[in-house]
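Re: export button greyed out
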Amino acid sequence: MTGETVTVEADVFADGHDAIAAAVLFRHERARQWTTVAMTPLVNDRWRAEFPVTDLGRYLYTVEGWVDHFGTWSRQLAKRVAAGQDVKVELEVGARMVEAASQRANGAARDVNRLGALATALRAGKSEIDDGALALMRRYAERDVTPYGRTLEVLVEPVKARYSTWYEMFPRSAGNFKDVQKLLPKIAEMGFDVLYLPPIHPIGTTHRKGANNRPATPGEPGSPWAIGSEEGGHKSIHRELGTLDDFKNLVRAAGEQKIDVALDIALQCSPDHPYTREHPEWFKHRPDGSIQYAENPPKKYEDIYPFDFETDHWRELWLELLSIFTYWAEQGVRVFRVDNPHTKPFAFWEWAIAELRRAHPEVLLLSEAFTRPKVMYRLAKLGFSQSYTYFAWRHTAFELYQYFTELGQSPVREFFRPNLWPNTPDILTEYLQTGGRPAFQARLILAATLGASYGIYGPPYEALEGRPREHGSEEYLDSEKYQLRDWQPDDGMRELITIVNRIRHENPALQSDRGLRFHFAENEQLLAYTKTTPDNSNVILTVVNVDPHHTQRGMITLPLEELGIEGDRSYQAHELISGARYLWNGPRNYVEVSPFSMPGQIFRFRRRVRSEHDFEYFV
Amino acid sequence: MTGETVTVEADVFADGHDAIAAAVLFRHERARQWTTVAMTPLVNDRWRAEFPVTDLGRYLYTVEGWVDHFGTWSRQLAKRVAAGQDVKVELEVGARMVEAASQRANGAARDVNRLGALATALRAGKSEIDDGALALMRRYAERDVTPYGRTLEVLVEPVKARYSTWYEMFPRSAGNFKDVQKLLPKIAEMGFDVLYLPPIHPIGTTHRKGANNRPATPGEPGSPWAIGSEEGGHKSIHRELGTLDDFKNLVRAAGEQKIDVALDIALQCSPDHPYTREHPEWFKHRPDGSIQYAENPPKKYEDIYPFDFETDHWRELWLELLSIFTYWAEQGVRVFRVDNPHTKPFAFWEWAIAELRRAHPEVLLLSEAFTRPKVMYRLAKLGFSQSYTYFAWRHTAFELYQYFTELGQSPVREFFRPNLWPNTPDILTEYLQTGGRPAFQARLILAATLGASYGIYGPPYEALEGRPREHGSEEYLDSEKYQLRDWQPDDGMRELITIVNRIRHENPALQSDRGLRFHFAENEQLLAYTKTTPDNSNVILTVVNVDPHHTQRGMITLPLEELGIEGDRSYQAHELISGARYLWNGPRNYVEVSPFSMPGQIFRFRRRVRSEHDFEYFV
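Workaround output, generated via the alternate export path:
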């Protein structure tokens, strides 16, 4: 993120006993000059340096090391002097090194003079080498550098790539873009900063799907993911949602509330998409001449045609697909949710994202790849800013502990940013189906505190909608994918969302995935974890009862010292949802979490501070 | 080692849902053809293959993956058939893939016929694809391979690089090479397979060191590491040790006892070495014109001149130094102990060892680099077969557990082979100085069972010599480095060495560093660990009391299942030093180890076997 620093560590060592030095060289991809930062030795031949990143885009960096001959000489000289040895010959050795350096400083008259004076002083018996002399010699010393040999890259993205709060809704259920615009104050008040809309394009009619995934009957609106009709494709807007100007007005109005409108880019076509007529060569054809529809045998999706990314005309296809992103970026869209990126070639994403970022370094891309971990990680490496996760299917305390421990480990955490969704239009988990209000509350608190980025498919979440299409299915009954819905939000749920997002906003520990630690709870239905800022100035403990049916209680053990809390004094645990304040003592404390009042608690620890007055207070 | 297999694992995955395949390609550095081994998927996109190594030297290997289009098609076909779908069009798709493959098989008439028959059968409605058809299609399928892009190397060394037992002695104390030859039967009987001799070259007289590191008085023999005199240098033999023929006789006689004679290569010169006169350009010169002697300020070693590896004449110098190794290899020497390799350039070793192995792939090199871990590891990567370690200074059970856990971890264990020495001519540890006979016994048992390779500086070890030059020093009193010694071996110590080496010889678990596991002992003075063969056919438990002054007792907990022992039956623990047999039950068993009888116990577990007779016996 801009404003952050990049920490670089390297093993730097040489044969022999010479003093060595090392540096990190870095530059922004658009800068021509490298900047050098000296590295500092830690222990066991490990060296470290940091450099600041101030601009969006790629930074290049590498490491180099060299033997510090003058440093070696001066270190040995000091030992000889301390041992009372005659150092006359040694001083002559040093004087010659200084003279050689002076040759290399021939442009800088002042430094040449200083080096000349140093050589003279050494020959006259001066055996204390001060820091000024060392610095001067470092500048002109012969530097026979050993380069690391590889240039590494770090991508700097907007802060929202790290910390974001998403709200998904089908604009057509609200009416059109103008109606959505009227909802913005409410969405902003709840604390969301990304408004994500499923595809807004014309919808095909061939094989159109109707309510509950049955063939459509006349008048049914169809799935927004069946993109394209006679009226247009990926760069067009569904007539009933409004005009391009309406859309741009919505984007602008959202921006005023600090909300980004996120578009859903699904690189696939309905059979009626203009591409299918204008560019049949971009699709696979079956021996009978028809275009190959999407399938996951034995399932068939005859309303969807996938692109053939390996067509002989792939160059034209890829350029056109890139132009979809570019087109919307030019209309002011900075956030894209990409549908099923893992079914398109890695090489396409690597190229397309780099090209898009070259023109629009501010874009943020969320990968919707619910697939194997290594494929998800690969997409992150190729340039996706964030990714959906398995969070929705991790329900027990132990599953959640395991999964977030895996995501928090290096190297995954260096490039993979999870975005946690308790529900989506495709995912209504059994837990939400059966757990009632406490399940919705618990999953919201978990998503919002385990992840610096999270999102909800909002209207049904607020409405506590838990009815599946059929037993054993994760599809919603009367899914909004195929029909309009009129949602009735639950006031209590809206209030909780508002409070939890405010807590995120006020506590920087919750705005990063770095400082997550799990803690031992003496009850396997309780999940306890802290998030902290690096300096421990903000320490947030969350305790969630994952059992939506019973009150659970137990002792929680905290590593007070690691959290920067003095172990021998009481400290205040301020529960931020209810506002209650508790005085805790020592590492073991009792918690009781009832799903009937609130299945999760979010504590901020306040440290006791000495004041100039006689009483104590907490900050 | 020859006869072993190399296991290769890789993450192999592709975008989309296609079936994929992967292979390892390998060849010996002298072979021209690559051999292909199919990889097998494990879980989570991890694939594995193994290949055998049969020749000494480097093997090259790499990985490649590709999409298996026909495999994907046949997998999907099976699903369609199972779902009762009409697959006429699909079979046509398959027939066309077969015809395309047939084009690529145009040389092989029989396969062309088989492919033609397959295409016909598909068009006729055959929807079961058998393994023969899949194999045929794999042979001729279009294989759009994604190569890993890097070729990796694995060095195959003689078995002795993994499992060796070293005995160090100063030949001059025995008399000459002929006298050493007479000692061979005794050394072989004790179970050693490497006889390591400190430098055997002429010794300089300038600044010669005498007894206890004082300036020599006339008649004192000098340190063997002050190499070179008027009589010759690194390719000459000290006159009093014998002739080159005497030496070759010793090497030959040792070979008959399966003992390798190891030479000590110390790349440094006495001031009297012929190189100093013939090649003064190979040394650093001080401003007063003298050659720079070795030093570690404020310590000076005026009897030693280091080479200047960075001299302008480095090519000639490096070639000459390589020729020292080559010369002795041509006299039949296969094992070299290299003195202080870390004070010479990494680049020199990388080049010199590769050149030496090109002509003599059978050589084994032991690195004597007591320096920082990363430098030791680097030397191993550059080609050293084995390395000295910090073992001598790890005394408590916890220190030993920690150190060997570190060495046993990947990647270190993949390239770094420790050789454990409880003593050397430079190292008489405080533990041996103060612990008496139990200390010598305990350290021998530890070295011989923790390490597949270990060695002792034999004569003083057998004599239980523990007197330091002065309090706080690790130097021997009257060190053999500077004077002749007449050692009186202790019969009990000799017997223990003989028994322990026989145990190593009879138990393959002790001949590798791979199967080491530490176990919980309820007494911090007891160190308990097992070594096992991969198939658990050989399971050795060693328990050492590291306290040389008191009897220690406690319960040891073993993970029986991991060791292949049935937990619900008693099993036999056969103590191999004493020959005692115990019947143990379950994972927790009592041990008592007295330093006054023997401070270590080595158990081999015997499993109970059902026989055709009525009684049970153990194997």
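The two ends of chain B are 28 Å apart (CA to CA). The button fix ships in the next patch.
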